[in-house]
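[job 4417] fold queue: 2 targets
>>> target A
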Amino acid sequence: PYLTRCMYQLYQPMRFSCLLLLPGRIYGRHSSSFVPFMDRHNCLHFDLSTVVPTQKNCENVQSRILEQLSAVCNEVPPRCNAVWVHLLSSQCSLLPRLCAPPPDGQGFQLHHAKPKSLSLYRWLGPGDDRVPAFTTHQVAITADATLREVYEETGLQPTFRALMGVRESNGIPSTFGTAEILALCHLSLSGSPTEIASQLKLCPIVSSSSFLK
Protein backbone atom coordinates (compact mmCIF):
# COMPACT_ATOMS: atom_id res chain seq x y z
CA PRO A 1 0.00 0.00 0.00
CA TYR A 2 2.96 2.35 0.41
CA LEU A 3 4.19 1.95 -3.14
CA THR A 4 3.99 5.04 -5.27
CA ARG A 5 4.12 4.76 -9.01
CA CYS A 6 5.96 7.50 -10.84
CA MET A 7 6.71 7.78 -14.54
CA TYR A 8 10.00 9.34 -15.44
CA GLN A 9 11.68 10.03 -18.75
CA LEU A 10 15.29 9.16 -19.42
CA TYR A 11 17.48 11.30 -21.61
CA GLN A 12 17.14 9.17 -24.72
CA PRO A 13 14.40 10.45 -27.09
CA MET A 14 10.99 8.76 -26.74
CA ARG A 15 12.22 6.28 -24.14
CA PHE A 16 10.21 5.87 -20.95
CA SER A 17 10.64 3.66 -17.93
CA CYS A 18 8.41 2.96 -14.96
CA LEU A 19 9.75 3.25 -11.41
CA LEU A 20 8.19 2.03 -8.17
CA LEU A 21 9.07 4.33 -5.29
CA LEU A 22 8.94 3.13 -1.71
CA PRO A 23 9.00 5.71 1.11
CA GLY A 24 12.20 5.53 3.10
CA ARG A 25 14.19 4.11 0.19
CA ILE A 26 16.60 6.06 -1.99
CA TYR A 27 16.74 5.36 -5.69
CA GLY A 28 19.64 6.58 -7.77
CA ARG A 29 20.72 9.31 -5.39
CA HIS A 30 24.37 8.84 -6.30
CA SER A 31 23.80 7.59 -9.82
CA SER A 32 24.82 9.42 -12.96
CA SER A 33 21.25 9.08 -14.24
CA PHE A 34 18.44 11.41 -13.25
CA VAL A 35 16.21 9.24 -11.05
CA PRO A 36 13.89 10.60 -8.31
CA PHE A 37 13.72 9.07 -4.86
CA MET A 38 11.03 9.04 -2.17
CA ASP A 39 11.97 9.86 1.44
CA ARG A 40 10.31 8.61 4.63
CA HIS A 41 8.04 11.68 4.71
CA ASN A 42 6.54 10.74 1.33
CA CYS A 43 8.33 13.57 -0.46
CA LEU A 44 9.70 13.01 -3.95
CA HIS A 45 13.24 14.33 -4.53
CA PHE A 46 14.84 15.26 -7.86
CA ASP A 47 18.57 15.63 -7.28
CA LEU A 48 19.77 17.53 -10.34
CA SER A 49 23.33 17.58 -9.01
CA THR A 50 23.63 14.07 -10.49
CA VAL A 51 22.92 15.47 -13.97
CA VAL A 52 26.03 16.67 -15.76
CA PRO A 53 24.91 17.88 -19.20
CA THR A 54 27.46 18.81 -21.81
CA GLN A 55 27.51 22.23 -23.41
CA LYS A 56 25.86 20.82 -26.54
CA ASN A 57 22.85 19.19 -24.87
CA CYS A 58 22.44 21.52 -21.86
CA GLU A 59 19.26 23.21 -23.11
CA ASN A 60 17.76 19.88 -24.16
CA VAL A 61 18.40 18.32 -20.76
CA GLN A 62 16.96 21.32 -18.91
CA SER A 63 13.79 21.20 -21.02
CA ARG A 64 13.28 17.53 -20.24
CA ILE A 65 13.84 18.14 -16.53
CA LEU A 66 11.13 20.81 -16.53
CA GLU A 67 8.77 18.55 -18.49
CA GLN A 68 9.28 15.76 -15.97
CA LEU A 69 8.66 18.04 -12.99
CA SER A 70 5.56 19.47 -14.64
CA ALA A 71 4.17 15.96 -15.19
CA VAL A 72 4.70 15.03 -11.53
CA CYS A 73 3.16 18.27 -10.21
CA ASN A 74 0.14 18.05 -12.52
CA GLU A 75 -0.52 14.38 -11.77
CA VAL A 76 0.35 14.06 -8.09
CA PRO A 77 1.59 10.53 -7.27
CA PRO A 78 -0.39 8.77 -4.50
CA ARG A 79 0.76 9.67 -0.98
CA CYS A 80 3.20 12.27 -2.32
CA ASN A 81 3.25 15.27 0.04
CA ALA A 82 5.83 17.43 -1.71
CA VAL A 83 8.30 17.55 -4.57
CA TRP A 84 11.86 18.69 -3.93
CA VAL A 85 14.44 19.87 -6.43
CA HIS A 86 18.13 20.06 -5.50
CA LEU A 87 20.33 22.21 -7.75
CA LEU A 88 23.99 23.03 -8.06
CA SER A 89 24.89 26.71 -8.10
CA SER A 90 25.83 26.28 -11.76
CA GLN A 91 22.22 25.28 -12.53
CA CYS A 92 20.64 28.50 -11.27
CA SER A 93 19.50 29.35 -14.79
CA LEU A 94 16.58 26.99 -14.09
CA LEU A 95 15.28 29.11 -11.21
CA PRO A 96 13.02 31.50 -13.19
CA ARG A 97 11.17 28.60 -14.81
CA LEU A 98 11.03 26.58 -11.59
CA CYS A 99 9.81 29.39 -9.33
CA ALA A 100 7.34 31.17 -11.60
CA PRO A 101 3.72 30.33 -10.69
CA PRO A 102 1.80 28.00 -13.03
CA PRO A 103 1.19 27.95 -15.92
CA ASP A 104 4.35 29.96 -16.68
CA GLY A 105 6.48 27.92 -14.26
CA GLN A 106 6.37 25.08 -11.76
CA GLY A 107 5.54 27.08 -8.61
CA PHE A 108 8.52 25.96 -6.51
CA GLN A 109 9.71 27.88 -3.45
CA LEU A 110 13.30 28.33 -2.30
CA HIS A 111 13.82 26.43 0.95
CA HIS A 112 17.53 26.75 1.72
CA ALA A 113 20.91 27.29 0.12
CA LYS A 114 24.42 26.05 0.85
CA PRO A 115 27.72 27.30 -0.60
CA LYS A 116 27.47 25.08 -3.69
CA SER A 117 23.82 24.04 -3.86
CA LEU A 118 20.25 25.10 -3.20
CA SER A 119 16.99 23.25 -2.58
CA LEU A 120 13.47 24.14 -3.66
CA TYR A 121 10.14 22.48 -2.97
CA ARG A 122 6.48 22.54 -3.91
CA TRP A 123 3.81 21.37 -1.48
CA LEU A 124 1.37 18.90 -3.06
CA GLY A 125 -0.17 17.27 0.00
CA PRO A 126 -3.57 17.93 1.55
CA GLY A 127 -4.15 20.97 3.73
CA ASP A 128 -1.68 23.73 4.51
CA ASP A 129 2.02 23.55 3.73
CA ARG A 130 3.68 21.55 6.53
CA VAL A 131 7.30 21.75 5.34
CA PRO A 132 9.34 23.32 8.19
CA ALA A 133 11.63 26.25 7.57
CA PHE A 134 15.37 25.58 7.33
CA THR A 135 17.53 26.27 10.40
CA THR A 136 20.96 25.34 11.73
CA HIS A 137 19.29 23.62 14.72
CA GLN A 138 15.83 22.14 15.09
CA VAL A 139 14.08 21.74 18.42
CA ALA A 140 12.00 18.57 18.22
CA ILE A 141 9.49 18.89 21.09
CA THR A 142 9.94 20.88 24.30
CA ALA A 143 7.94 22.94 26.81
CA ASP A 144 4.18 23.24 26.21
CA ALA A 145 4.57 21.63 22.79
CA THR A 146 5.17 18.32 24.57
CA LEU A 147 1.78 18.47 26.25
CA ARG A 148 0.06 19.66 23.10
CA GLU A 149 1.55 16.92 20.92
CA VAL A 150 0.53 14.18 23.34
CA TYR A 151 -3.02 15.56 23.50
CA GLU A 152 -3.34 16.02 19.73
CA GLU A 153 -2.05 12.54 18.93
CA THR A 154 -3.60 10.47 21.73
CA GLY A 155 -6.52 12.48 23.09
CA LEU A 156 -4.99 12.46 26.58
CA GLN A 157 -4.37 15.59 28.65
CA PRO A 158 -0.93 15.04 30.26
CA THR A 159 0.60 16.78 33.26
CA PHE A 160 4.24 17.84 33.20
CA ARG A 161 6.35 16.44 36.05
CA ALA A 162 10.04 16.96 35.28
CA LEU A 163 12.67 17.44 32.60
CA MET A 164 14.70 14.25 32.48
CA GLY A 165 17.35 15.20 29.94
CA VAL A 166 18.29 16.93 26.69
CA ARG A 167 19.84 15.23 23.68
CA GLU A 168 21.44 16.74 20.57
CA SER A 169 21.68 14.65 17.42
CA ASN A 170 23.79 15.81 14.49
CA GLY A 171 23.57 15.08 10.79
CA ILE A 172 19.86 14.20 10.75
CA PRO A 173 18.92 13.32 7.12
CA SER A 174 15.33 14.51 7.53
CA THR A 175 16.56 17.98 8.57
CA PHE A 176 19.11 18.25 5.74
CA GLY A 177 22.06 17.38 7.93
CA THR A 178 21.36 19.95 10.65
CA ALA A 179 21.29 19.26 14.39
CA GLU A 180 18.17 18.28 16.32
CA ILE A 181 17.62 19.05 20.00
CA LEU A 182 15.25 16.70 21.82
CA ALA A 183 14.01 17.10 25.39
CA LEU A 184 12.96 14.01 27.35
CA CYS A 185 10.07 14.92 29.65
CA HIS A 186 8.43 13.04 32.50
CA LEU A 187 4.63 13.29 32.13
CA SER A 188 1.77 11.73 34.02
CA LEU A 189 -1.25 10.46 32.10
CA SER A 190 -4.75 9.41 33.00
CA GLY A 191 -7.23 7.44 30.95
CA SER A 192 -6.62 5.37 27.84
CA PRO A 193 -5.08 6.71 24.63
CA THR A 194 -7.17 7.11 21.49
CA GLU A 195 -5.39 6.04 18.33
CA ILE A 196 -5.50 8.67 15.57
CA ALA A 197 -4.63 6.98 12.29
CA SER A 198 -3.48 10.17 10.57
CA GLN A 199 -0.89 10.79 13.30
CA LEU A 200 0.25 7.44 14.69
CA LYS A 201 0.27 3.77 13.82
CA LEU A 202 0.26 2.73 17.50
CA CYS A 203 0.07 4.66 20.77
CA PRO A 204 0.26 2.16 23.67
CA ILE A 205 1.30 3.22 27.17
CA VAL A 206 4.35 1.19 28.24
CA SER A 207 6.24 1.02 31.51
CA SER A 208 9.55 2.84 31.88
CA SER A 209 11.41 -0.47 32.24
CA SER A 210 9.96 -1.75 28.97
CA PHE A 211 10.75 1.53 27.24
CA LEU A 212 14.40 1.44 28.35
CA LYS A 213 14.78 -2.07 26.95
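>>> target B
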Amino acid sequence: MTYSKDISDIPLKPPVETFVDDPTSLDECSIDELMFDLTHGIKNINKLHVFHAILVLSQTLQDIIKLQEHPALFEQFRATQLAKFGIELSAVRTPEIDQIGLMKYGNSHSSTPPSSPPLKFTKLNEPSSFSLAENDFGQYAEATPESQDEEGEEDAPFVPIEQLVKSTSLDEVETPIDSSCPERFRKEFFSCQKNKRLVQNSHLLKSFNLVKLPPLLITDFLLRIKTYSSSISVSSYIHSALLMFKLSVLLDIVPLTQMNAYRFILASIRCSTKNLEDVYQKQKSFATVGGVSPKDLFKVEVGFLYLCNFKLIIGESLLNQFLTSLFLDLRNFCIEHFEIDKKPKD
Protein backbone atom coordinates (compact mmCIF):
# COMPACT_ATOMS: atom_id res chain seq x y z
CA MET A 1 0.00 0.00 0.00
CA THR A 2 1.44 3.34 -0.99
CA TYR A 3 0.99 6.56 0.86
CA SER A 4 1.24 9.85 -0.95
CA LYS A 5 1.62 13.20 0.75
CA ASP A 6 1.57 16.68 -0.63
CA ILE A 7 5.13 18.02 -0.81
CA SER A 8 3.98 21.25 0.78
CA ASP A 9 3.18 19.29 3.94
CA ILE A 10 6.73 17.99 4.32
CA PRO A 11 8.54 20.08 6.96
CA LEU A 12 11.82 21.55 5.75
CA LYS A 13 14.90 22.04 7.87
CA PRO A 14 15.53 25.64 8.81
CA PRO A 15 18.39 27.32 6.94
CA VAL A 16 21.68 26.90 8.75
CA GLU A 17 24.65 29.15 8.15
CA THR A 18 27.56 27.15 6.76
CA PHE A 19 31.29 27.81 6.85
CA VAL A 20 31.16 29.30 3.35
CA ASP A 21 28.60 31.98 4.19
CA ASP A 22 29.90 35.53 3.99
CA PRO A 23 30.09 37.41 7.30
CA THR A 24 27.35 39.92 7.94
CA SER A 25 29.33 41.92 10.49
CA LEU A 26 32.87 42.33 11.74
CA ASP A 27 31.98 40.37 14.88
CA GLU A 28 31.61 37.25 12.75
CA CYS A 29 35.21 37.53 11.52
CA SER A 30 37.93 35.84 13.54
CA ILE A 31 41.52 36.96 13.06
CA ASP A 32 42.77 33.49 14.06
CA GLU A 33 40.56 31.75 11.51
CA LEU A 34 41.56 34.27 8.84
CA MET A 35 45.25 33.66 9.55
CA PHE A 36 44.68 29.91 9.28
CA ASP A 37 42.91 30.32 5.94
CA LEU A 38 45.64 32.58 4.56
CA THR A 39 48.39 30.26 5.77
CA HIS A 40 46.86 27.19 4.11
CA GLY A 41 45.80 28.90 0.90
CA ILE A 42 42.09 28.68 1.64
CA LYS A 43 41.68 32.43 1.18
CA ASN A 44 43.37 34.98 -1.04
CA ILE A 45 42.60 38.46 -2.30
CA ASN A 46 39.81 37.11 -4.50
CA LYS A 47 38.12 35.19 -1.67
CA LEU A 48 38.01 37.85 1.02
CA HIS A 49 34.86 39.62 2.14
CA VAL A 50 34.97 43.35 2.81
CA PHE A 51 34.76 42.67 6.56
CA HIS A 52 37.86 40.47 6.28
CA ALA A 53 39.65 43.31 4.49
CA ILE A 54 38.66 45.80 7.19
CA LEU A 55 39.91 43.37 9.83
CA VAL A 56 43.25 43.05 8.04
CA LEU A 57 43.69 46.82 7.74
CA SER A 58 42.66 47.48 11.34
CA GLN A 59 44.91 44.73 12.72
CA THR A 60 47.84 45.86 10.58
CA LEU A 61 47.63 49.43 11.86
CA GLN A 62 47.23 48.39 15.49
CA ASP A 63 50.14 45.93 15.31
CA ILE A 64 52.44 48.52 13.73
CA ILE A 65 51.51 51.12 16.36
CA LYS A 66 52.18 48.62 19.13
CA LEU A 67 55.43 47.46 17.57
CA GLN A 68 56.81 50.97 17.03
CA GLU A 69 56.31 51.70 20.72
CA HIS A 70 59.16 49.22 21.32
CA PRO A 71 62.08 50.31 19.07
CA ALA A 72 64.23 47.24 19.75
CA LEU A 73 61.52 44.81 18.70
CA PHE A 74 60.57 47.03 15.78
CA GLU A 75 64.13 47.02 14.45
CA GLN A 76 64.32 43.26 14.94
CA PHE A 77 61.17 42.66 12.92
CA ARG A 78 62.12 45.21 10.27
CA ALA A 79 65.52 43.56 9.80
CA THR A 80 63.88 40.19 9.08
CA GLN A 81 61.55 41.77 6.51
CA LEU A 82 64.30 43.70 4.73
CA ALA A 83 66.42 40.56 4.58
CA LYS A 84 63.79 39.09 2.25
CA PHE A 85 64.72 41.80 -0.25
CA GLY A 86 68.45 41.29 0.19
CA ILE A 87 68.95 44.36 2.40
CA GLU A 88 71.04 44.06 5.54
CA LEU A 89 69.71 46.62 8.00
CA SER A 90 72.88 46.70 10.10
CA ALA A 91 74.85 47.85 7.06
CA VAL A 92 72.44 50.69 6.27
CA ARG A 93 73.50 54.02 7.70
CA THR A 94 70.57 56.21 8.72
CA PRO A 95 71.36 59.83 7.76
CA GLU A 96 70.64 62.66 10.16
CA ILE A 97 68.89 65.91 9.42
CA ASP A 98 70.25 68.84 11.33
CA GLN A 99 69.14 71.92 9.46
CA ILE A 100 67.21 75.05 10.34
CA GLY A 101 64.16 74.11 12.38
CA LEU A 102 64.18 70.47 11.25
CA MET A 103 64.04 67.46 13.47
CA LYS A 104 67.06 65.24 13.86
CA TYR A 105 66.48 62.02 11.99
CA GLY A 106 68.67 59.76 14.09
CA ASN A 107 65.57 57.79 15.03
CA SER A 108 62.41 58.06 12.97
CA HIS A 109 60.14 57.23 15.90
CA SER A 110 60.05 60.76 17.26
CA SER A 111 56.61 62.13 16.47
CA THR A 112 56.02 65.53 14.94
CA PRO A 113 53.94 68.03 16.88
CA PRO A 114 50.18 67.91 16.26
CA SER A 115 49.01 70.62 13.91
CA SER A 116 45.58 69.52 12.65
CA PRO A 117 42.15 70.07 14.19
CA PRO A 118 40.29 67.09 15.65
CA LEU A 119 38.01 64.99 13.49
CA LYS A 120 34.38 66.11 13.51
CA PHE A 121 31.91 63.35 12.78
CA THR A 122 28.56 64.37 11.35
CA LYS A 123 25.70 61.98 11.98
CA LEU A 124 24.56 60.77 8.57
CA ASN A 125 21.00 59.58 8.06
CA GLU A 126 21.46 56.62 5.76
CA PRO A 127 24.38 55.03 3.93
CA SER A 128 24.58 55.45 0.21
CA SER A 129 26.99 55.38 -2.67
CA PHE A 130 27.70 58.64 -4.37
CA SER A 131 28.56 59.32 -7.97
CA LEU A 132 30.57 62.16 -9.36
CA ALA A 133 28.40 64.56 -11.33
CA GLU A 134 29.46 67.53 -13.37
CA ASN A 135 28.39 70.03 -10.71
CA ASP A 136 30.17 68.19 -7.91
CA PHE A 137 33.32 70.21 -8.27
CA GLY A 138 31.77 73.32 -6.69
CA GLN A 139 34.48 75.56 -5.32
CA TYR A 140 37.16 73.55 -7.10
CA ALA A 141 35.90 74.56 -10.54
CA GLU A 142 38.69 77.11 -10.84
CA ALA A 143 41.38 74.58 -9.98
CA THR A 144 41.74 73.80 -13.70
CA PRO A 145 41.69 77.12 -15.55
CA GLU A 146 40.99 77.38 -19.23
CA SER A 147 43.87 77.12 -21.62
CA GLN A 148 46.07 80.17 -21.77
CA ASP A 149 47.72 79.24 -25.07
CA GLU A 150 48.69 82.15 -27.22
CA GLU A 151 47.17 82.57 -30.64
CA GLY A 152 49.17 81.09 -33.47
CA GLU A 153 50.94 78.55 -31.26
CA GLU A 154 51.26 75.19 -32.99
CA ASP A 155 50.14 71.93 -31.40
CA ALA A 156 52.79 69.59 -30.07
CA PRO A 157 53.84 66.81 -32.46
CA PHE A 158 52.38 63.35 -31.94
CA VAL A 159 53.48 59.83 -32.80
CA PRO A 160 51.29 58.15 -35.45
CA ILE A 161 49.41 55.07 -34.28
CA GLU A 162 50.95 52.96 -37.04
CA GLN A 163 54.43 53.74 -35.72
CA LEU A 164 53.38 52.94 -32.15
CA VAL A 165 52.00 49.55 -33.22
CA LYS A 166 55.26 48.66 -34.96
CA SER A 167 57.41 49.67 -31.98
CA THR A 168 55.21 48.14 -29.28
CA SER A 169 56.11 44.70 -27.97
CA LEU A 170 53.45 42.47 -26.43
CA ASP A 171 55.96 39.93 -25.14
CA GLU A 172 55.65 39.09 -21.47
CA VAL A 173 58.29 40.92 -19.41
CA GLU A 174 60.36 39.08 -16.84
CA THR A 175 59.35 41.25 -13.89
CA PRO A 176 56.03 43.08 -14.47
CA ILE A 177 55.63 46.38 -12.68
CA ASP A 178 52.68 45.02 -10.70
CA SER A 179 54.65 42.07 -9.29
CA SER A 180 57.16 41.85 -6.47
CA CYS A 181 60.72 42.63 -7.55
CA PRO A 182 63.48 42.74 -4.88
CA GLU A 183 65.80 44.76 -7.10
CA ARG A 184 63.12 47.38 -7.74
CA PHE A 185 62.40 47.68 -4.03
CA ARG A 186 66.10 48.01 -3.16
CA LYS A 187 66.37 51.01 -5.48
CA GLU A 188 63.34 52.60 -3.83
CA PHE A 189 64.67 51.83 -0.35
CA PHE A 190 68.04 53.50 -0.86
CA SER A 191 66.38 56.42 -2.63
CA CYS A 192 64.38 57.08 0.55
CA GLN A 193 67.59 57.35 2.57
CA LYS A 194 68.62 60.54 0.83
CA ASN A 195 68.62 63.68 2.96
CA LYS A 196 66.36 65.55 0.55
CA ARG A 197 63.59 62.98 0.89
CA LEU A 198 63.96 62.85 4.67
CA VAL A 199 63.64 66.63 4.98
CA GLN A 200 60.51 66.58 2.83
CA ASN A 201 58.95 63.71 4.79
CA SER A 202 59.47 65.43 8.14
CA HIS A 203 57.29 68.32 6.94
CA LEU A 204 54.65 66.12 5.32
CA LEU A 205 54.08 64.08 8.49
CA LYS A 206 52.85 67.12 10.42
CA SER A 207 49.64 67.37 8.41
CA PHE A 208 48.51 63.92 9.62
CA ASN A 209 48.68 64.59 13.36
CA LEU A 210 45.54 65.45 15.33
CA VAL A 211 45.21 67.74 18.34
CA LYS A 212 43.26 65.07 20.24
CA LEU A 213 42.04 61.55 19.69
CA PRO A 214 38.62 61.16 18.04
CA PRO A 215 35.79 59.42 19.92
CA LEU A 216 36.00 56.37 17.63
CA LEU A 217 38.46 53.49 17.78
CA ILE A 218 40.35 52.62 14.60
CA THR A 219 38.08 49.65 13.92
CA ASP A 220 34.92 51.71 14.48
CA PHE A 221 36.32 54.42 12.22
CA LEU A 222 36.82 51.88 9.43
CA LEU A 223 33.30 50.53 9.94
CA ARG A 224 31.94 54.07 9.64
CA ILE A 225 33.75 54.45 6.32
CA LYS A 226 32.40 51.09 5.16
CA THR A 227 28.85 52.01 6.17
CA TYR A 228 28.68 55.35 4.38
CA SER A 229 31.12 54.51 1.56
CA SER A 230 29.96 51.03 0.69
CA SER A 231 31.45 51.12 -2.81
CA ILE A 232 35.03 50.76 -1.50
CA SER A 233 36.33 47.37 -2.57
CA VAL A 234 38.29 44.66 -0.77
CA SER A 235 41.36 45.46 -2.89
CA SER A 236 41.33 49.10 -1.77
CA TYR A 237 41.38 48.17 1.92
CA ILE A 238 44.14 45.59 1.43
CA HIS A 239 46.13 47.98 -0.75
CA SER A 240 45.88 50.60 2.02
CA ALA A 241 47.23 48.07 4.52
CA LEU A 242 50.08 47.24 2.14
CA LEU A 243 50.99 50.90 1.67
CA MET A 244 50.97 51.57 5.41
CA PHE A 245 53.14 48.50 6.06
CA LYS A 246 55.57 49.65 3.40
CA LEU A 247 55.80 53.24 4.68
CA SER A 248 55.91 52.36 8.39
CA VAL A 249 57.97 49.15 8.44
CA LEU A 250 59.93 48.59 5.27
CA LEU A 251 60.85 52.21 4.50
CA ASP A 252 60.45 53.44 8.09
CA ILE A 253 59.42 56.95 7.10
CA VAL A 254 56.08 57.03 8.95
CA PRO A 255 56.07 56.82 12.77
CA LEU A 256 52.52 55.53 13.09
CA THR A 257 50.64 56.53 16.25
CA GLN A 258 47.07 56.79 17.49
CA MET A 259 47.26 60.52 16.77
CA ASN A 260 48.03 60.22 13.05
CA ALA A 261 46.53 56.82 12.13
CA TYR A 262 43.09 58.24 11.35
CA ARG A 263 44.28 60.68 8.72
CA PHE A 264 46.54 58.06 7.22
CA ILE A 265 43.48 55.81 6.93
CA LEU A 266 41.60 58.52 5.04
CA ALA A 267 44.51 59.35 2.76
CA SER A 268 45.50 55.77 1.96
CA ILE A 269 41.94 54.58 1.28
CA ARG A 270 41.12 57.64 -0.81
CA CYS A 271 44.27 57.28 -2.91
CA SER A 272 43.67 53.55 -3.34
CA THR A 273 40.08 54.00 -4.47
CA LYS A 274 41.06 56.67 -6.98
CA ASN A 275 43.83 54.42 -8.25
CA LEU A 276 41.72 51.25 -8.47
CA GLU A 277 38.12 52.26 -8.92
CA ASP A 278 38.16 55.80 -10.27
CA VAL A 279 35.87 58.03 -8.18
CA TYR A 280 32.66 56.54 -6.83
CA GLN A 281 31.98 59.23 -4.30
CA LYS A 282 32.13 62.98 -4.04
CA GLN A 283 35.19 64.43 -2.37
CA LYS A 284 33.01 66.48 -0.03
CA SER A 285 30.92 63.46 0.96
CA PHE A 286 33.96 61.33 1.79
CA ALA A 287 35.42 64.23 3.77
CA THR A 288 32.19 64.39 5.81
CA VAL A 289 32.35 60.66 6.50
CA GLY A 290 35.97 61.01 7.62
CA GLY A 291 35.32 64.05 9.80
CA VAL A 292 37.58 66.45 7.90
CA SER A 293 37.06 69.37 5.57
CA PRO A 294 37.49 68.85 1.80
CA LYS A 295 40.55 71.09 1.96
CA ASP A 296 42.18 68.97 4.67
CA LEU A 297 41.30 65.76 2.83
CA PHE A 298 42.98 67.08 -0.30
CA LYS A 299 45.99 68.13 1.79
CA VAL A 300 46.54 64.69 3.33
CA GLU A 301 45.94 62.99 -0.03
CA VAL A 302 48.70 65.01 -1.67
CA GLY A 303 50.97 64.53 1.35
CA PHE A 304 50.41 60.78 1.22
CA LEU A 305 51.25 60.70 -2.48
CA TYR A 306 54.55 62.46 -1.81
CA LEU A 307 55.36 60.07 1.05
CA CYS A 308 54.75 57.19 -1.38
CA ASN A 309 56.77 59.02 -4.03
CA PHE A 310 53.65 58.61 -6.21
CA LYS A 311 54.26 54.85 -6.39
CA LEU A 312 50.81 53.34 -5.96
CA ILE A 313 51.46 50.32 -8.12
CA ILE A 314 49.12 47.47 -7.35
CA GLY A 315 48.57 43.97 -8.64
CA GLU A 316 47.00 40.71 -7.56
CA SER A 317 50.37 39.12 -6.81
CA LEU A 318 51.43 42.08 -4.63
CA LEU A 319 48.23 41.92 -2.58
CA ASN A 320 48.48 38.16 -2.16
CA GLN A 321 52.13 38.47 -1.13
CA PHE A 322 51.14 40.97 1.54
CA LEU A 323 48.35 38.74 2.85
CA THR A 324 50.27 35.47 2.87
CA SER A 325 53.69 36.79 3.89
CA LEU A 326 54.02 40.32 5.27
CA PHE A 327 50.73 40.45 7.18
CA LEU A 328 51.15 36.97 8.64
CA ASP A 329 54.74 37.73 9.66
CA LEU A 330 53.62 40.90 11.44
CA ARG A 331 50.72 39.16 13.17
CA ASN A 332 52.79 36.16 14.29
CA PHE A 333 55.61 38.39 15.54
CA CYS A 334 53.21 40.46 17.64
CA ILE A 335 51.52 37.34 18.99
CA GLU A 336 54.90 35.95 19.99
CA HIS A 337 56.18 39.07 21.75
CA PHE A 338 53.08 40.79 23.14
CA GLU A 339 50.53 39.65 25.64
CA ILE A 340 47.61 41.58 27.11
CA ASP A 341 48.64 43.86 29.97
CA LYS A 342 52.18 42.50 29.91
CA LYS A 343 55.45 43.95 28.80
CA PRO A 344 57.08 42.59 25.66
CA LYS A 345 59.55 39.79 26.01
CA ASP A 346 63.22 40.65 25.85
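[job 4417] complete. Note on B: Residues 30-123+180-337 form a domain with the Cyclin A; domain 1 fold (CATH 1.10.472.10).
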